[in-house]
Amino acid sequence: MTTLPYSRQAITPDDIDAVAQVLRSAFLTQGPAVERFEREVAELHGVAHTLALANATCALHLACLALGAGPGTIVWTVSTSFVASANCALYCGADIDFVDIDPATRLLSVEALAAKLAAAERDGKLPSIIIPVDLTGLPCDYAAIRQLADRYGFKVLADCSHALGATYQGHPVGSRYADIAVFSFHAVKIITTGEGGMAVTQDAALAERMRLLHSHGITRDPVRMEAEPPGGYYYEQLALGYNYRMTDIQAALGSSQLARLPRMAAERRMLAERYGELLAGRGWLLPAMPADRRSAWHLYVVERGDNNRARRDELFGQMREAGIGVNLHYLPIHLQPYYRKLGFGPGDFPHAERYGERAITLPLFPAMTHEDQDRVVALLGHGA
Ligand SMILES: *Cc1c(COP(=O)(O)O)cnc(C)c1O
To answer: What's the pTM?
Structure first.
């Protein structure tokens, strides 16, 4: 029996043609395909500035730097995410801490955030950046987070790695409320460039800062130089930057994939709704669907209603053995060995920990058939 993966990229002949065209052209990198892809994502998400990058981890790193993360500053995110959501703060020398999740949405709890901010204000240890994560593609409650940001003076860096195409209050994620938002185009995500990421913002100064840092801190713009350029060969390094560029090969694949996003998003949504119908009343905790948001449905996660970790693990093993590529997104970051050495431990974020003990990610991708889905549901049985 072939294994049904939890996610699988959808590559068409058009995608292959788009990539081959770049390979036959004059530019493999720093050519027109990257600019075009940046423009298309800007239009889709209603943002003024977009920066294509080697991956979303680079985007999170540059966003943290642009928003002022550094030694002596504090960054908060959620523990129920991929480790990159927290690591980006540590790259900058900032201190990291976590906010617990809301068990219903599995997203950053606004109540927990408000309480933690009030305590941090008393202690004089307010964070300068908060990184909400749109887990599974469901947008966080950005309006509420923005209100707290305005009151306490922190920046909002939205990790929308799962949420390309998702909307919040009728608007694309990343277009309002967040100072910077990032997307991932890793092979398993909504659309792919193999590896790839994007940072988006409405703020021209933040965009310029990230653009400088993504290519060695070098400028070729005479207006920004300290000296009068002596010739066309001249450039200046103004900051300690990196090589975090996306190639034109990747960007061409991204543009080609993006053209199919509406159809792929509709397929994901239909499969997710069908999971909801098939699994109703079987003791599983199903994904929340707040009326003011539309999920990108990157992942479909169910949780055991009986909260039984041993039975979850047993079922997980049985399904893998039966060729169903179930997965877990995510064990809490704060319980990773590296983070335990920083002082975090069990009991710190109880909702994130309980989620990690009872969640299972079911297969979900555009080409998945109803037959595949029926097999998953039959093997899953009851969750309580
Ligand atoms: C995938 C992912 C990232 C990192 O994306 P890359 O493009 O692989 O670097 C960051 N945050 C979350 C929530 C992710 O799922």
So the answer is: 0.97
